[in-house]
Every structure is written in C-alpha cells, then in structure tokens.
Design brief:
Two copies of one chain form a homodimer.
Chain A lengths: L14 H8 L2 H13 L6 E2 L9 H13 L3 E6 L2 E6 L1 H7 L3 H11 L9 H7 L1
Antiparallel strand pairs in A: 1-3, 2-3
Chain lengths: ~120, ~120
C-alpha cells in the first residue's frame, strides 16, 4: 500500500486555492524556504522547517500546501520530503510563483522569512 | 467631515493580506474587471459590478479590497467610484498584480470572470 498522500494533478491546481494557501505567513515562509533551497537541493524534509513553527502546526501547513498543488510530498520510511511543484505551477500560472517569491523577498524582514545564508548554513 | 473611507498607505500594504484578498473568487473578479476597464476608464462605480454578486455582499468585498490596499474608493455624492491602486501595488510588489491578473485571465472560464468585450459593451 502506497503511503504517498494524494496530490492534485497539474490541471486541478486552482488559482484561488493557491493564493489562499500563500496568504498564510507560515506557508509563505515554507514556500520561500523551499525556493531558496532549490539551487542546493530540490527537496527538504520536515525537520528543516522546525524554526518556523511547532511540529503539528507544520504538518497541517504541509497538508494545505500539498492539497492546493504548491508542494509535492515524497514519503521514504519515516521521513517526508517536500519540494515545490515549480514546473506544474509555471505551466498553470506562468510567472505567478516568481512574482510572489520576489514580493516576499522584498518584505523578508517584515515577514520574518529565513535569510538565504541561514538556509545554506543549516546544511 | 470627509466621507472618504480610510485606506492604508502604500507602505502599509502587506503581502499576506493582498494574497488573502485576491484568493476570494468574487474579489478576484472585481479586481479583474477594474483591470480590464483601465484602458477605458480608471474608475468604476458600484453598479458596474452588479453582475458579480448582491449589493450588500459587494459592499463587504469592496471594503476588504480597500482595507488591504488593492483598491481606492472615492465618494462623490451618493456614488462610490473604485479604482485599482496599481502604482502603489507595483511599488510595493513589482510584477505581482500583473502575474495574478495573467493567471486569472488564463482561467477566466473556470473562474467565471467577465470577458473583456462584456465590460466594454456594458459602457
């Protein structure tokens, strides 16, 4: 039995759900961190986000990000690995993810987003 | 006494609030319609949106759009005129509004957005 949780197909990704998902500061921070890390690794595991919130709260946010199609979750043993569904998002809404990430970067201090160097050093 | 309702300053416009505001399909449709109309007129009045929802519901959505900084409301007599705060949004989050509008246009049928010709004909 596969333990991979359900994901929407590319075609099922809906703009209102994506915007709603990104409107939460913690989910925006998760997406921002995944995007920052993309150059180093396409995936991060749950523990990489511990600085953002408590474990059960993060689990809830991961599910929301998966359900709206922003994030792909891969289960390996007891670990879960997350990556941005950048290609799917770009195919559905060209330029949207980058515009949101750029906006978030501009307000990184105000949004208390993790700095790029923090992510790299955490490796 | 001025009857102009309060608006956030450019600097007070916050990304999570803007994204949350745009995640509602009716508010997204209002913003889309304002953007479509910009080439003809920078302002629309309440009645121009009657096709989207009931009057009291629209009043609620106009207030949300105003409070998050997406829209400017001008009161003239018994009329209210609305326009997009494009310059302020572009200054705060370059490219974001256009990326959202482009994404919305791509899903116009799915989101039941008013077609450009409908808006122009409604004049």
């Amino acid at each position: 039995m596969s333990r991979t949780p359900p994901h929407p197909t590319r075609e099922q990704i809906e703009l209102p759900l994506v915007l709603d998902c990104l409107s939460d500061p913690i989910r925006l921070a998760i997406v921002y961190q995944l995007a920052q890390q993309e150059r180093v690794s396409s995936e991060l595991c749950c523990g990489d986000f511990n600085g953002l919130s408590g474990k059960s709260n993060l689990t809830y946010h991961f599910a929301k990000l998966r359900d709206c199609g922003l994030m792909q979750t891969r289960v390996a043993g007891t670990n879960r690995f997350m990556r941005l569904r950048r290609e799917d998002l770009e195919a559905r809404f060209p330029g949207l993810l980058d515009a949101v990430l750029k906006s978030a970067a501009k307000d990184a201090d105000r949004l208390q987003l993790v700095a790029e160097c923090d992510v790299v050093e955490a490796d």
